[in-house]
Amino acid sequence: MIEDKEYSASRNLSVNDFSGGALGLPKGACGLLAVAGDFKLSALLKAARCLQYRGRTGAGVTLKSLYRDTNFFNFHIMFRSADKIAELEQVLITMGLRILEKKDMVQRKYYYEYDLPVIMHYSIIPPSPEEMMFREKIRDESMYIKRVVARFNRMYIDDARIFSSSKYNGTFLTAFELQDTIDIYDLHQYEDRFYDACLIHLRWPTSQGRGLWWGPQPISLGEVAGVHNGHLSSDMANARALEQLEIMLTVGTDSEAIFLSVEYLLRSGYSLEEIEWIICRKFPQEVKLMAQEKQEQYAKLMDDPLLFRMKMSGPATAITLVDDVLVGFTDRDHLRSFSVGVNDKIALLGSEQRAVISAAYFMHEELKMFDPEAGRIVGFTVKNKAVSKLDYGWKKND
Amino acid sequence: MTDMKRDVVFKRQIKYTEPASRGVYAQGAKYWVKVTDEIEEPGRGCVHCGTCVEACTHNLTNPASPDGVFSMEEVCYDADGNRVRAEDADKVRLIEKILWINPDECCNCKRCVKMCPQRAIKVYENPDYHDIGVTLTGHEEINNILNRAAGKSSISSAHLGRGKSKLYTDWLIDAAEILSPTRDHMNEYAGQMRSMTLGKRIARFKCDVPIMDVHQSYGSNSHEAVLARMMACVKLGRPFFTGEGYIHPDMMPAASHCILQFGSGGFGPWVELDKFAGISMKYGQDAKKGKGGRLQDKKNDYEIALLRCVEALRHLSSPNPQHLQYSIEELPMRVESLRALLGDKKLIGADVYGTAWNFPEICVAIAKAGFDYITIKAGDGSTGAAHLVDLQNRGLNIIYLTHKADLALRSEGLREQISIIAEGGVMDSFGAMLTMLAGADFVGLGMRTLHVLGCTLCQRCHTGQCAWGITSRKYGHRIDPATASDGIVRMIKSFHEDMEGMAAGLGMSNHADVIGARRFRYHGNDPLLFETFGRGETPKQVAHVDVRERTKKIFKSREVSYAENTEKFEKILQNIDGENLKIDVGFDQIESMQLNHLMKEAADRGVKKFYLDNVMGQRTIGTGIKCDEITVRGLVGNHSFAFARDVKINVIPNHSTITTVPANAQVGVANTSNPSEINIAGDVSDLFAAYAISGTFRVAKSGGVRNLLLMKAGLPDEWKKTDADKYVGADKNVILNELVRRYQKRKARRVKTTWGDFLKAFEQKLHNRKPPVAVYGLGHEKGMGDYFMEYAQGGIGVVLNVVNRENPIGYYVCSGMTAGAAYIRGNIAEEQLGVGVRKIDYLTMADTEFLKEQIDAFLDTFSGVDIDPEYNDSLKAFKARYEAEPNSVFGGFCKVIPISSLTTESNE
Ligand code: SF4
Ligand code: SF4
Ligand code: SF4
Prior knowledge:
Shape of chain A: globular
Bound molecules: iron/sulfur cluster
Largest sheet of chain A: 7 strands, antiparallel
Largest sheet of chain B: 11 strands, mixed
Strand order of the largest sheet of chain A: 7-2-8-1-14-13-15
Helix content of chain B: 25-40%
Strand order of the largest sheet of chain B: 23-24-25-26-27-28-29-30-31-33-32
CATH superfamily of the largest domain in chain B: Aldolase class I
CATH topology of the largest domain in chain B: TIM Barrel
Number of helices of chain A: 14
CATH class of the largest domain in chain B: Alpha Beta
Oligomer: heterodimer
CATH architecture of chain A: 4-Layer Sandwich
CATH topology of chain A: Glutamine Phosphoribosylpyrophosphate, subunit 1, domain 1
Radius of gyration of chain A: 20 Å
Number of domains of chain B: 4
């Protein structure tokens, strides 16, 4: 007897392959590379290939500011089955979104070559401010988009994934290797377009082929995108903290919890140093050696039961992009490596030195290289290709 | 004299010692020891021969005591009944011989019972101890509370889970009968489980039996117990798994039959690895899930220290994690490194215990990473020491786990790429057969082997008092390895025969039919087992197979690598100039394993000195390459120089392009190595020189976290000159004879002297070792990372701080270090120190001399290298200061050492 019920009748991906179905997502541990500033995409992609040994099923790229000249939101959506497209477009419409235009993102030949979901680009207009207020009590369009995308992704997880929903940035994912992702989306077509930051992720899922298409990173939701490697032991605690803030995970992984925590903390006006304290928690001995005033500030933050639960335990290097801010850090125990290279033009962040130096080499740049100390946050802002390092006390003021 | 003697009367007495204490914490004897006299059992009464005094080695309250449960006393009296000294022989008229019994110290090992010539001893559960409490809270719970309240240890060993093995009842192995015929394994080709291989890819070990022994370390087991088990393995035609204590040099003739286990402590010299059959990575153990282990100081005697390359008489920690692999995607990197080390033909295995929910994923990840076999540990058995709480942490059933692993591997198309050994809670041939039917290629029996050596499961292995000499080194000679190994062979053969009979009964002809056939049924009341094996036949095929992973080969063998790149390789190899070869790696033009294979090819053609130019983070550089010197210009990738031996390595920066490629080293570089020296003219990332055994390491700048983790104490001469070469490919009998010959020599020395003196002979050898030394300059970019020299077991770390950082180092400095020392220049707060170490702020003359030597060599190495302008200036300034006022430099150092440098005396 062969059980085959999970496979749909038409030529489609199985739910198992797409979202993992009842089995959920496999955890991953991967290779990361990010850059901000004035750089060449091709050089970066070439450099990232040296991380391929840390990735097998899943590779993704986020290009910041790729769509900055469009006046709408750019959704990249993958549909597990062509049969689902019409139905799910209707769902978007009932959420108040207007579909201005849609187009295929992948040439037909790749559908023959690979087992791909149907991948489409949508130009999306959010409702009017009044309608947004009426529907969700939200006035800000980015917030509105985030809310509905999160809801859509949670509700239709087995059939579709909106994996890019920014006004400015574009994220490209496949469940294959980096070279496949480059080919399938023809990323080289963007070579001469405008972009001022990029995140690359090569994924190593821990397991059998479950949830292949929900696993790949960067995980991007609205103007947040992030890459992470490692498997946190604090995943439950971190997710619960967000849950009690009414911030719901859509992909549902420990990685997403980190990115959303960073976003929450940045938007709440915590300084980089405070974010470091919360997420990469200091050893008690370190706290003892801090200045009195800092100790008090630290103790006050730790008194907040929600912030207390946001500590990241277990191996992790994480790089998060929130609007124009790029932050990276490792877990306090440094169970993952993390390297940074900077000069006037660019800031490179990677999960190993090799990737960072290779990128510099292919870009013909000289860098100042360093490995941030364990659990130290580094932050940069990037606007119009101009990158600057943020100091510890910096806070995001929106 | 003769007259007098006739007058002396002997009187025999059997007496119990008084209980040492009274009150609620005096829990009393767990077991009652009763010795009968002639009156009670005529012909079987005690004759006061003293055998039991020698036999009993256990003393629960005072393990260091020379006495066990029994002691013999002679009291002399004169004619008037007054006590006199024995020396006053002419006065002695009555000698009272008393056999004293202290049942409070008995652990029920039954050695005395079985050794007593009169069978006069009976040992049984003492009702006073066991008959307390009620069903819900019985003696176990009450005594557990009392033990904890009294501050007693909660460690036990050789537990077999809590409750009975679930393999014992309610399983039905099918019989062919009528629908298809059963077969006759006695007279026909049927049911045969012979000539299997462990490993299904290139690396294979031919096995004649499906039943394996399990990993138990030299040190937890006595020399003799290890030897007996090893000889049995050789005789049976199966690999011997060493456990994480390495093997004794005397056992090297059997190396090709041994698979070394790399535990989280990384103990051992890690040399002559090409002589062994493979390496097993220990990721988990069933005795204590998620935990490492600790060999107590008294068990780490001089000889053990020599084998494990650590300082003697200190606790030895095996940390909980395997520090070079923090998650699944780092497994392939480990396999890559071991492949580079061992070549394609040696086995690489992974030992894991069955986790709660993600076990199938773990198995798949292991197969994908390139391991040759996986040992599933069910946590339903185990031989190791553990805390009582671990007993409650009962593992999943081995049949269930095997079934899950088999299905998961099949779904990924990987099942025929990897072998499964399943163990834990398998009691006998019936359990073994069930396990194989559930999908295991081999099954492991651990405890059963120990019964052959005498083990009665008294659960006292961790004390080193085992009366049978199995887990006590001192009493090891109570086992005769050759005879004992025959016993093991007979036991395994008998089980093997049972299994072949059952296979024939199923109508099967050989093990190919058996493995994973699932011709059984569970009809008991365990819900999980019933759901899985009680509801109906397992489908013949899994629903969906994805063979993608099979075709994605991460590692190409050296042969394939050469075949695919012959032209490229040969072009480079043309540049061989005598013993020298320069290879231009061209940044991204040669991949990691390709470079490794290329270097091996070159080394085979006589190259002794390599110059690798334009290197950009290639991994595993130098691992498994036999040469004298390697110079690398550029960035050194993860796990390079791992297991390097007797080679001089220099890493220098590359300023030849716009982008400077610094002479840095990524994660895990130089791990487990014995180089002559490694000089890195840049910084190093995490875990540099972790598990390093010997050699000199110099790093111009800083190190990441956990540098010099578990550093060892030097390579003893024993390991520099083994004659293992002679036995490569030797016939079994030649190997066995040599093992016996060497053991006899050892025993001859052993019986001539006390155990203490026997061990003392090894002390000098320990002193002859040269400990590894690592010197860091520190850079401007960062200080030395946290957990410096964590768990170090020897060796010396020096932080020169040439850039004069205010705070040179992170936190948990030398945490858990049990031997060795760190010299650090700069301010360190007490808060920065790790657990169990202290800081000394003054240096002795010897310290200064040592540092002078190290600083001179450091400056010699790096002064001429152009690292970067900022660092170059700092080094120049440091040099000037050091040369002008050396004392101002020495004065800035502190020394970090373990709190108690000598914690114990040997077992004696
Ligand atoms: S061994 Fe037996 S006979 Fe000998 S002293 Fe002990 S109890 Fe008595
Ligand atoms: S059973 Fe073992 S521990 Fe008990 S008295 Fe006999 S030898 Fe000693
Ligand atoms: S090996 Fe020795 S100490 Fe351990 S349980 Fe068996 S008899 Fe007891």
